[in-house]
Amino acid sequence: MNHLSSVKHVIIVLSGKGGVGKSTMAVQITMGLHAAGKKVGLLDVDLCGPSIPKMFNLEGRDIHQCPEGWLPVYVDKEQRIGVMSIGFLLHDLDDAVVWRGPKKNAMIKQFLSDVYWQDVDYLIIDTPPGTSDEHITVMEALRAYNPDGAILVTTPQAVAVGDVRRELTFCHKTGIPVVGIVENMSGYVCPHCSECTNIFSTGGGKALAHQNNVPFLGSIPIDRHLTLSLDTGKNFLESNPGSPALSAINHMIQKLIAIDKDLP
Amino acid sequence: MSNVPENAPEHCPGTSSESAGKVEACVGCPNQAICSSIPKLGPDKAVEEIRQKLSGVKHKILILSGKGGVGKSTFTAHLAHALAMDENRQIGVLDVDICGPSMPRIMGAEGETVHQSGSGWSPVYVRDNLSMMSVGFLLGSLDDAVIWRGAKKSGMIKQFLRDVDWDKLDYLLVDTPPGTSDEHLALIQYLSGAGIDGAVIVTTPQEIALCDVRKEISFCRKTSLPIIGIVENMSDFVCPKCHKSSIIFPPTTGGAIKMAENLGERFLGSLPLDPRIAQCCDEGKSFFEEVPDSPAVSVFKAIVEKVVNYCTGLAKHMEADTGESNMEVS
């Protein structure tokens, strides 16, 4: 059985740095593509720190088996957003998954081969930080399916950009195309005086994209409503019209869909 | 070192034995392939070598978090700077984040190289009494990616612990990558002889981060690693213009203080989000010196004091226990 061959587009969300908003972006891209009428699957391969179930308010849900394989957990009644994460397989959410590389690789391979996504338009893959087991395994397994490429998430400060630069090298070495770079947490607007402070500096992601000649997908400002909606598993795109982060996210999704139109 | 499972076949040599999966009794056992392929965690001679190498290091502290980007490296760097303010102390920092080494930049040592000496690798000195080691010093260019699987990363960590010539240190701070995987297991395994004082766990206030941090605490408990305490970073943000504070990462479930209380762990303090701290990290400076007026400075100093008290208390406790000093050097 080959469930991935029926998936039209595969996008991997990567970052060398932790906590820059990979999962947040993966969730927002999924929601945005869904709002644009696409059928989307989201695979979380962060085995030691799975945050996707929480962000969709799906904690405690179980995976079901069907003759074709594992069925993803669906977010909506129409079954147009399917999610798979190790979080659904853990009995105790506080329990640590203390696994070395080979065991993680086996789990990821199983996720990639056994999940029955059905005919999704997009499969978004959320990854842990780094350039190690999880990433090598995903890249090796996906090479045969011609993935659209990777979206690199960074925050603006030099410390984060430094790690993301290494991730770019990883993409080049493993031959995965870079769809673009997103700069998250770009500025914070003080709710008292509306002054915008660049907490983590500014422009680092844009400069990195420019230097390496890859598309820049936009800067997303810090918005506490975004953090809040993820903590509570609410749909940020629907519940916060008018937020500057929302328009930046929508802009990014438009770019993604446009890029895909150019693909064969 | 037998580790024989309850349902094992008769004469099972034990899962961690050298001959696991290879003897007659293993034929037909469903786990034979796993047993024979897993690297053995049994007594590794490196553990003893590392114990000897680190015998001049009084206190060893790990900085952990299940979540990435919460400020582990920032905390480690500034804990080191704060400890090094006392000129009589010798401090070492080891960065075991192999794929994303940010320590060289945060410590202002980017571009430095490591030298080999007769007794091992010489660490890079950032101050007279503060030295550090990171995989970042071994890379040719800043763009270089370390595309390594777990086993190779563990090997590198073993080499760092065994071959870096720290000489005598009061504190060795080990900065880790997020998660509960190869790097963390390697540290626990290789430092089992030398001993670890404990771990400082760093988190941010929102539930998404706390979820992962609870897993890290469960990891510490599973591996019997003592927890010194929990630090909450990026707690609130003070606007540089109007000086009013606001919350960026809302503690929807009570934040780290509540989590520490629920889990019965020590809470060390909440550090505010100050854009000048991020800037200091980018420039490789110590924020104690650059922005002494930051509200983070006094909170940080209180946390440092708690960590020092824990370590010295532990040393005294050990002394009382064994009737002699546990340190080979004074």
TrEMBL record, chain A:
Gene3D superfamilies: P-loop containing nucleotide triphosphate hydrolases. InterPro entries: Mrp-like_CS, Mrp/NBP35_ATP-bd, NUBP2/Cfd1_eukaryotes, P-loop_NTPase, YlxH/NBP35. Keywords: 4Fe-4S, ATP-binding, Cytoplasm, Iron, Iron-sulfur, Metal-binding, Nucleotide-binding. It comes from the Eukaryota. ATP binds at G16, K17, G18, G19, V20, G21, K22, S23. [4Fe-4S] cluster binds at C190, C193. GO terms for cellular component: axoneme; centriole; cytosol; nucleus. Its cofactor is [4Fe-4S] cluster. The keyword Iron-sulfur applies. Its main location: cytoplasm. It is found in: Cytoplasm, Cytoskeleton, Cilium axoneme; Cytoplasm, Cytoskeleton, Microtubule organizing center, Centrosome, Centriole. GO terms for molecular function: 4 iron, 4 sulfur cluster binding; ATP binding; ATP-dependent FeS chaperone activity; metal ion binding. Binds 4 [4Fe-4S] clusters per heterotetramer. Contains two stable clusters in the N-termini of NUBP1 and two labile, bridging clusters between subunits of the NUBP1-NUBP2 heterotetramer. SUPFAM superfamilies: P-loop containing nucleoside triphosphate hydrolases (SSF52540). GO terms for biological process: iron-sulfur cluster assembly. Component of the cytosolic iron-sulfur (Fe/S) protein assembly (CIA) machinery. Required for maturation of extramitochondrial Fe-S proteins. The NUBP1-NUBP2 heterotetramer forms a Fe-S scaffold complex, mediating the de novo assembly of an Fe-S cluster and its transfer to target apoproteins. Negatively regulates cilium formation and structure. Heterotetramer of 2 NUBP1 and 2 NUBP2 chains. Interacts with KIFC1. Interacts with NUBP1. Belongs to the Mrp/NBP35 ATP-binding proteins family. NUBP2/CFD1 subfamily. This is Cytosolic Fe-S cluster assembly factor NUBP2 homolog.
Automatic annotation (TrEMBL), chain B:
InterPro entries: Mrp-like_CS, Mrp/NBP35_ATP-bd, NUBP1/Nbp35, P-loop_NTPase, YlxH/NBP35. Keywords: 4Fe-4S, ATP-binding, Cytoplasm, Iron, Iron-sulfur, Metal-binding, Nucleotide-binding. The keyword Nucleus does not apply. The keyword rRNA-binding does not apply. Its main location: cytoplasm. It comes from the Eukaryota. Binds 4 [4Fe-4S] clusters per heterotetramer. Contains two stable clusters in the N-termini of NUBP1 and two labile, bridging clusters between subunits of the NUBP1-NUBP2 heterotetramer. One of its GO terms (molecular function) is metal ion binding. [4Fe-4S] cluster 1 binds at C12, C26, C29, C35. It holds the Pfam family ParA. GO terms for cellular component: cytosol; nucleus. It is found in: Cytoplasm; Nucleus. Its cofactor is [4Fe-4S] cluster. [4Fe-4S] cluster 2 binds at C239, C242. ATP binds at G66, K67, G68, G69, V70, G71, K72, S73. One of its GO terms (biological process) is iron-sulfur cluster assembly. Belongs to the Mrp/NBP35 ATP-binding proteins family. NUBP1/NBP35 subfamily. Component of the cytosolic iron-sulfur (Fe/S) protein assembly (CIA) machinery. Required for maturation of extramitochondrial Fe-S proteins. The NUBP1-NUBP2 heterotetramer forms a Fe-S scaffold complex, mediating the de novo assembly of an Fe-S cluster and its transfer to target apoproteins. Implicated in the regulation of centrosome duplication. Negatively regulates cilium formation and structure. Heterotetramer of 2 NUBP1 and 2 NUBP2 chains. This is Cytosolic Fe-S cluster assembly factor NUBP1 homolog. It comes from Lymnaea stagnalis (Great pond snail).
